[in-house]
Amino acid sequence: MKPFRLSESNLNAFLARISAGRTIFTHEAVGDQFRLVKTDHWDPSRHTLGTFRPVQPLKSLVFRPRELLGALFGEPGLPALELRIVLGVKNCDLSALQIHDFVLRKNTPPDPYYAQLREQTILVSCDCTDCREVCFCPAVGEQPYPKAGYDINLSPQTSGFIVDAGSERGEALLQTAQEFLQPATEPDLQVRQQNRDAIYRRVADQAASVGLTPGLDLQGAVVKSEGQPLWKAFAEDCVECGACNFVCCTCHCFLLRDGQTGGRMPERVKQWDSCLHKNFARVAGGANPRQRRTERLYNRFDKKFNFFPQVLGHYACDGCGRCTEACTGQIDIRRVLKEAVG
Amino acid sequence: MKPNLYLPLAATLEKVVEETHNIKTFTFRPAEPLPFAAGQFVELTVPGLGEAPFTPSSSPAEAERLEITIMRVGRVTERLHALQPGAGVGIRGPLGQPYPLEKFRGREILIVGGGVGLAPLRALLFALFEDTSQYKKICVRYGARTPEDLVYREALRGCWGRGDTLDVKLTVDKCDAGWRGHQGVVTTILEKNELPLAPAGGVAVVCGPPIMMKFTTLKLLELGFAPENIYLSMEKNMSCGEGKCGHCRLGPYHACKDGPVFTYAQIRDLPKIWD
Question: Which of A106, A256, A306 to mutate to test the interface with B (most CBs of B within 10 A)?
């Protein structure tokens, strides 16, 4: 399906059409940030597609922070789930789903909760037109606009958008909104490319200003730096709060926790876990392969920049910079990587 | 496997055998047969408390009942040890990769256990006993801290000490005058003159505490076993059992999905494998 042009004046009607019958997740501006919100209708006076990624990672919508798996010996089926659509997804979050898809879906048997949430959720992405000061996606081989993984993508132009479908279901949805769309012209696509190049250069320059130029061998740098003083130095500022894991768009670790509430059947919960917590890798009897915080901090980077390139050919970091903003100890992932590179 | 990979099958505790002061063998009857292969593990749930991974110690030929030998070391095992026959638990599995018996055929096999580490090896022995003619030799070398810490004592004395194929030797680290067997750590019964097999083409299977596995591996290499023929059970914090939750990562592997048994050749270059 060829790209289309959508005029600014048709945006609200277009979004209402493609969202019909679905619970909407989109953005609200809060201070100088955006936050993910849930709504039953697109309200242009409150909602926005956002110009850069929101505070919360997209993963939280398809890999929930806390998933009640139900009574231990109850029915194994999944509860019914409404159809959903996310409006304004940014590339870092979208690309991160490659990690979750690999771990939770392609690695069989699939996680039925994740598979259901992915299946029921349409992803409408949007090119970044601005960035946070902490963004550095070009340094990890990404760019501030999507190349794949979306159902529909919107590229803002001076007036209106270039719209294209990235999946069969995206194409089907666009079919329902044809009255708002005109075929995009070659000059439209040239303008889109110019806009994309401009925002790429801006984020790449900002990353380069802290020493992270595109194409650095971050895998080699992290592997080579194991045991070096930098890890101990950064670990001294880590308070093991796990905020970096929870805001990270790629972190996928979880724990299965059992409980029993007042007179009810024993039940099991799947909830996010943090590899920086001391007992993450501890075994019964007390042995712990990562007893020291330094080892746990290194392990986080080893997983992101060494394990995933080995098994998937992709860093488990998309340069969203959320961990830097969330870190209680003010550990800046860009500085860590820069020091590892040397 | 149930459709929901995170939820267990109900099972009933049928029998408890006290092996030592802190080790018991439990017989569980799952609500449905649970076929497994030697080396695979299960997650055992104490309802309302949590689950922990164990490798069954019973014969893989028997799917109706599973025996699991458990040392009391933590929160879940403490509660398991307090259970009486009739109690309800949950079992999830089988998980992980089995011992590659097809690679063991026609070869001499050395099985080395330390303490409660003999439990998974017992399931392997039962699998090997299904047709001992397939294997040239089966040697078992088992060490425990004291004579009172040896598990499966009756079996070791009786049915295991049979035939020409099987050769069993025990040792204890510490003992009093009443012990007439060998004394010393398990590597002391792995000397060349103690082993009626040729290490070069042989297979060694090891399970025990990390320190025992480390020194046993070094001894096996010294004896001439090839790194790809040394099979080690790696103890990691295995939770989901399907390589998703991230707890048991070991270099490029997940112990739960790619293991828990690895050859020394697979893991020797990974940092801190014995921690």
Answer: A256
Tokens found for residue A112: 């039925």
SS3 B271: coil
Q: Are residues A254 and B51, on separate chains, in Cβ contact within 8 Å?
A: no
A160-194 pLDDT, tens digit each: 999 999 999 999 999 999 999 999 999 999 999 99
Instruction: Quick: pLDDT tens for B210-249.
Output: 999 999 999 999 999 999 999 999 988 999 999 999 999 9
From A30's Cα to the closest Cα of chain B, the distance in A is 33
- Specify the pTM: 0.94
Domains and CATH numbers, chain B: 9-95 (2.40.30.10), 101-233 (3.40.50.80)
Q: Which residues of chain B form beta strands (DSSP E)?
A: 9-18, 23-30, 41-46, 50-54, 66-71, 88-95, 108-114, 137-144, 166-172, 182-183, 203-207, 230-233, 249-250, 253-254, 261-263
Task: Give A141 to chain B, closest Cα distance, Å.
Answer: 22
User: Is this complex's ipTM strictly greater than 0.90?
Assistant: yes
**Residue A262 — very low, low, confident or very high, per pLDDT cuts 50/70/90?**
low
Return d(Cα B201, Cα B263) in angstroms, integer: 15
Are residues A164 and A145 in contact, defined by beta-carbon separation less than 8 angstroms? Answer: no
Q: Which residue of A has its CA nearest to B47?
A: A266
